[in-house]
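Posting this for the archive.
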Amino acid sequence: MAETELERAEKRYAQAKARLQALKNREATRQRKLDTRRKVILGGALMDLAERDTGAAAMLNRLIRNLPREQDRKAFADWGTPSPAPSSSDPEKPS
């Protein structure tokens, strides 16, 4: 039995809908990866700054203490929070 025009149109519609959903899924995955990358970069920058600046070290300590989830706080249980090395230079200006 030959496929009718309506059946062909429905088939094309279903294929187009599947392609659209796949594109949406890829974009959502790309956005999640970008968000994760930004968080990792900022976290590393904050940790680096905390080694040079007492204000940043205090903020990092507060952030860790105020993490809402117990399992997140446990991740930092054995981690030594960086404390700035004593220095007479301004921590905001690179040497």
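Residues 53 and 90 are 9 Å apart (CA to CA). Residues 5-50 form the longest helix (46 residues).
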